[in-house]
Amino acid sequence: MILPSSGVESEYDRKSELEAFDASKSGVKGLVDGGLTKIPLMFIHPHYNPDAKSGSAVSQFRVPLIDLDGVNDNATLRAKIIDQVREACENWGFLQVVNHGIPASVLEEMLDGIRGFHEQDTQMKKEFYTRDFKEKVSFVSNFDLFQATAATWKDSLSWAVAPNPPHPKELPAVCRDIVMEYSKQVKRLGYTLFEVLSEALGLDVNHLKDMECAEMMFHAGHYYPPCPEPELTLGARRHTDSGFLTVLLQDQVGGLQVLHQNQWIDLVPMPGALVINVGDSLQVITNDRFKSIEHRVLVNSESSRVSVASAFGTTLFPSSKLYSPIKELLSQENPPKYKEATLQTHVAYLRGKRV
Prior knowledge:
Blueprint (H helix, E strand, L loop, with lengths): L13 H11 L2 H7 L31 E3 L7 H17 L2 E5 L5 H16 L2 H5 L10 E4 L14 E8 L13 H25 L6 H4 L5 E9 L11 E4 L5 E6 L5 E5 L2 E4 L7 E5 L1 H6 L9 E3 L7 E9 L8 E2 L17 E2 H12 L1
Parallel strand pairs: 1-2
Antiparallel strand pairs: 2-10, 3-4, 4-5, 5-12, 6-11, 7-10, 7-12, 8-9, 8-11, 13-14
Helix pairs in contact: 3-6, 4-6
């Protein structure tokens, strides 16, 4: 039995609560369906201060919005886009893009497909529930449930499509076709983005692709149910992404915030737009020129939120491959800030600095 948040602290058995929640295979959505009015203790973030959650209401800051129209067929527009992407990656680590080549109908169908998976009968979802992340397709609540100090208000359907995609029959029937189509289109967009990023760094157009920065692509379709006590928990705690680049599709509910100049800025959803952000691995190989920035997701009591994160990397962690800053970016004035090491070592180092 999962204890309510009003339980007595001295009697609280966190391990049992976690194990019971995981064993239910129902996720956070299962808790909400059960009609709870107070969240379990395992979800409470003691250091989360909702009164200081955002500076965007009075801030002049806005995450850069970039129009990709013409990026592949107009040299003048491409040069302008490259400059805009460079500035956004150096100063924000985040941007939104429109006219990216993925039809609005595909974006909407993808959001509907992920929502359809998470809102279907629990028994249908349970067959995909696993913490064995070697599985090509998995449904789980909180990837780090047993390691994190507090759980987040989120369930996730995950699948890797490169380099070894799942067989279509391994994907949930409710979203199978759109998952395959969306994955294909995001992969194509990712290649374009890595070309633009390479040129933004003054490198050959294929430099980052040749480094296998887009060799692996991992997707996670997140579902954030309505929360009866949103002031006590988060949909995603403050974090950075470990890969090279993330492409995020989000619905119009909102909740994503970016830490910019020590303020939490709302990344306001825009119809048809995709959010792009730099990951820790790209920060390392660019010698801190492009910034991997902390972000988080707030939840609300009124409506659920759906998003799809597509992460690009060289391989799933752990890997023995060694990385260091790209030598073409280094000089006497800009010496390497990182020694040669595995990406998981680099990521652990960066996150240790941010604590």
